[in-house]
């Protein structure tokens, strides 16, 4: 059975001291919640401090990005080797990376391959823009994103996919549970065609986009959705705990 996951993407928020304070506020209660993977993805500068803070707990750690080379003259970049000793998961292909930093499908693919080679577990983000959604191109867009992102990748057992419609990220306008479930189901079908039914059934697929404690139940009651990649709500201890608690109660195994 697929283990549900709630991952908090803090984006470019919190100083190191703020990150420590936020995790300290949540750590004890988060650790009590079982049957679900709880992942915190702070900025790079806070990874080491948060790692020490959650040591011995059931909370897992993730990074928000990486570069696809292991070392070299790439000023300002973070390699998978640097992350491998710090965290377990890494977010790749987030729409903000695609939009603001011009990450193409080829770049995302190289990052996924680099992460897997280094033993990191990618959380691969895909999703359509508003105009693509309104033009009925959702399936076309996610098909192409999956095709390019997973090119030449034969083993996806350590991969998690996050379906994040771009029009719902940070806008307060989440997709409905039914809409999200339909697209997640389609993504699972694509994985089944490429990797086989068993692998598709085992692959964890999250929803992301304006997820809050108020709408979590709607998403977690959908049979194909295995959790959420949470943005702004993950920066509020009570909100994030509410999302994790509801997911554990509804989808926990």
Attribute tags:
253 residues; 8 strands; eight-stranded parallel β-barrel; alpha/beta; TIM Barrel
Would you write up a description of this structure?
The structure is a single chain. This protein has one domain (5-251): Alpha-Beta Barrel (TIM Barrel). The protein has helices at 16-32, 47-54, 80-84, 95-100, 105-117, 130-134, 138-149, 177-195, 197-202, 216-220, 237-251, and strands at residues 5-9, 37-41, 59-63, 89-92, 121-126, 160-163, 204-208, 227-230. With 253 residues, it is α/β, with parallel strands linked by helices.
Report the CATH C-level class.
Answer: Alpha Beta
* CATH domain topology: TIM Barrel
Order of helices and strands: EHEHEHEHHEHHEHHEHEH
Range of strand content: 15-25%
Strand order of the largest sheet: 1-2-3-4-5-6-7-8
Which structural class is indicated by helix and strand composition?
A: alpha/beta
* Rg measurement, Å: 17 Å
Number of domains: 1
Secondary-structure blueprint:
Blueprint: E1 5-9, H1 16-32, E2 37-41, H2 47-54, E3 59-63, H3 80-84, E4 89-92, H4 95-100, H5 105-117, E5 121-126, H6 130-134, H7 138-149, E6 160-163, H8 177-195, H9 197-202, E7 204-208, H10 216-220, E8 227-230, H11 237-251
Parallel strand pairs: 1-2, 1-8, 2-3, 3-4, 4-5, 5-6, 6-7, 7-8
Helix pairs in contact: 1-2, 1-11, 5-7, 7-8
């Amino acid at each position: 059975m697929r283990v549900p996951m709630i991952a908090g993407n803090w984006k470019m928020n919190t100083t190191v001291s703020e990150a420590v304070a936020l995790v300290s506020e949540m750590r004890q209660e988060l650790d009590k919640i079982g049957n679900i993977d709880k992942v915190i993805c702070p900025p790079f500068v806070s990874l080491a401090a948060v790692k020490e803070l959650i040591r011995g707990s059931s909370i897992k750690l993730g990074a928000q990005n990486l570069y696809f080379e292991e070392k070299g003259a790439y000023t300002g970049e973070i390699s998978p080797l640097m992350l491998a000793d710090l965290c377990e998961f890494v977010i790749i292909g987030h729409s903000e990376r695609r939009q603001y930093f011009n990450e193409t499908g080829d770049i995302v693919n190289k990052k996924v391959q680099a992460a897997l080679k280094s033993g990191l577990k990618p959380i691969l983000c895909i999703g359509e823009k508003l105009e693509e959604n309104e033009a009925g191109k959702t399936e076309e867009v996610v098909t192409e994103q999956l095709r390019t992102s997973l090119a030449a990748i034969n083993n996806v057992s350590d991969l998690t996919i996050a379906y994040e419609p771009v029009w719902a990220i940070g806008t307060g306008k989440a997709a409905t549970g039914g809409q999200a479930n339909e697209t997640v189901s389609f993504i699972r079908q694509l994985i089944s065609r490429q990797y086989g039914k068993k692998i598709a059934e085992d692959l964890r697929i999250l929803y992301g986009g304006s997820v809050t404690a108020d709408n979590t139940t709607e998403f977690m009651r959908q049979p194909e959705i295995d959790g959420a990649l949470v943005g702004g709500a993950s920066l509020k201890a009570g909100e994030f705990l509410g999302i994790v608690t509801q997911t554990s109660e509804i989808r926990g195994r």
